[in-house]
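Late entry, evening session. Most of the bench is empty. Finally got around to the prediction I had been postponing all week. Sequence below, unchanged from the version circulated by S.P.
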Amino acid sequence: MHPTDPHHDHAKRTDPNWRWTHPSCLDVPELLKHCEIGTGRATGGPGGQHRNKVETQVFVRYKPADVEARADERRSQSENKSVALRRLRLLLAIHVRTPVPVGEIGSGLFRSRVRNGRIACSPEHDDYPAMLAEALDVIAAARWDVAKAALRLGSTTSQLIKLVKDHPAALRYLNEQRRARGEHELK
């Protein structure tokens, strides 16, 4: 999978009516329009005999980026669908880059979560995948310079790093990008 170039489409990024849209930020009905959903039998975990008789495993694949998430640890298909959708949002936040506007940036969501440089968003919160996606988009647009990205987002560098570190796969991704450019890893 190849993430999109965060530096393309300059005209779109300078349009004052442009909205920050990342697939991890879409509401469920809109996200599902771009997804394939499937089910299967779970292979272990809680649920006992019932679990082996019904298809409780759910996978959700976001077709435009060919990113897939699965869940099978819950007893019901609907619970597993919710878990799989959250996992998908996190994977999209890491693996899909969207363009960053020129000038003032930060979605309403991101700005509402930053006070005096501190970012208030627990990794368990529903907003976390969208916050992570926006942070990584801005970091990518800053050529993986977290300090420059933090300045553009109105947060401190340490707070932006903490937001990324709260999801270990995101930190690994960020460090891979930094290593590829000869930059030191973040701890």
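Two things to note before I forget:
The first strand starts at residue 35 and ends at 40.
DSSP finds nine helices and five strands in the chain.
Will write this up properly tomorrow.
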